[in-house]
Automatic annotation (TrEMBL):
Name this protein carries in UniProt: Delta(3)-Delta(2)-enoyl-CoA isomerase
Family statement: Belongs to the enoyl-CoA hydratase/isomerase family.
InterPro entries in the cross-refs: ClpP/crotonase-like_dom_sf, Enoyl-CoA_hydra/iso
Organism: Perilla frutescens var. hirtella
The UniProt record lists the keyword Repeat: no
GO cellular component: peroxisome
Any GO MF annotation of the entry: delta(3)-delta(2)-enoyl-CoA isomerase activity
PANTHER family reported in the protein's UniProt record: ENOYL-COA DELTA ISOMERASE 1, PEROXISOMAL (PTHR11941:SF84), ENOYL-COA HYDRATASE-RELATED (PTHR11941)
Gene3D superfamilies: 2-enoyl-CoA Hydratase, Chain A, domain 1
Length: 248
């Protein structure tokens, strides 16, 4: 699950445990509760850092949980997708700057979670940013692509990220304009994130204005997030399931 601590004027949301931090409803809700608490305690001088314990930031959706869905209507995958979209919208609407301190692998939905922060700092000694859908035979959701396009400036990099499923190290991420800065270890990454957060809170921006302006910058993502993208008809065979679930 996750914890929320306050270090001076910076909130640190940590996804805890040594597992893959797969994004299922339980973990997503735990993160959302922490965000709501940070929001309730926010002032003109606060910032949020999201990080994780272990070798994963988040290895993406909890596919085994979703695939074990007894409901032919695939309610589990719809629930997982809807909750992640709510979480991303809440991050985009948070009245304070947000920083992802990526201290481990961030795959697919986990990569999207990291990208949904204003800043992305990453350890350079290990960890990949990895949009893995092509490698695991799933169509990428349109809203994932919208996040990639909003956050990454070059169509050639979109192609590398989505159409080659590149395993992107921090150094390459800096090169490609995805990672703001690369650091020697998980601890150094979090320390750098705290320093960045403290620098940002010194500007004493009005959180409501910050959130409104971020929503304007990410209006294209919000527009796609909100559209009711549901899974297609049930009962399709495995081969076509990726088509079925591609609109999650
Ligand atoms: C059918 C109806 C129901 C539908 C059900 C589905 C519902 C959901 C629909 C999906 C919709 C599409 C959208 C999908 C979203 C998702 O999130 S789906 C899930 C996505 N997740 C994944 O695909 C998992 C991907 N992860 C991995 O493949 C691996 O975990 C990893 C990221 C590649 C890491 O590998 P791992 O072995 O786990 O870890 P490590 O041992 O740390 O690393 C492997 C080797 O790499 C070396 N390494 C690590 N970092 C670096 C670095 N920065 N630089 C260089 N090398 C590095 C590391 O040392 C290891 O090397 P070796 O020791 O030599 O192996």
């Amino acid at each position: 699950m996750c914890t929320l601590e306050r270090r001076g004027d910076v909130f640190i949301l940590t996804i805890t445990g040594g597992d893959e931090h797969r994004l299922n409803p339980e973990l997503i809700d735990s993160i959302r509760v922490a965000l709501a608490r940070a929001k309730s305690e926010s002032t003109r001088s606060t910032a949020l850092i999201t990080t994780a314990q272990g070798k994963f930031f988040s290895n993406g959706y909890d596919l085994s949980w979703a695939l074990s869905d007894p409901d032919p209507a695939r309610l589990r995958s719809k629930t997982m997708s809807k909750k992640l979209r709510l979480l991303v919208e809440e991050l985009i609407s948070l009245p304070m700057p947000t920083i992802a301190a990526v201290t481990g692998h961030a795959s697919a939905a986990g990569f999207i979670l990291a990208l949904s922060h204003d800043y992305l700092l990453m350890r350079k000694d290990r960890g990949y940013l990895y949009m893995s859908e092509l490698d695991i035979n799933y169509d990428i959701p349109r809203w994932f692509v919208q996040v990639v396009k909003n956050k990454i400036g070059s169509p050639k990099i979109w192609r590398s990220v989505v159409l080659t499923a590149a395993k992107i190290t921090a150094a390459v991420g800096v090169d490609w304009g995805i990672v703001d800065s690369a650091h020697g270890s998980a601890e150094e990454t979090v320390d750098a994130a705290v320093k960045l957060g403290m620098d940002l809170v010194r500007r004493k921006w009005d959180g409501k204005v910050y959130a409104a302006n971020r929503r304007a910058v990410l209006a294209d993502v919000l527009a796609v997030l909100g559209s009711d993208e549901t899974v297609g008809d049930s009962g399709e065979d495995d081969a076509s399931q990726s088509k079925v679930v591609s609109r999650l």
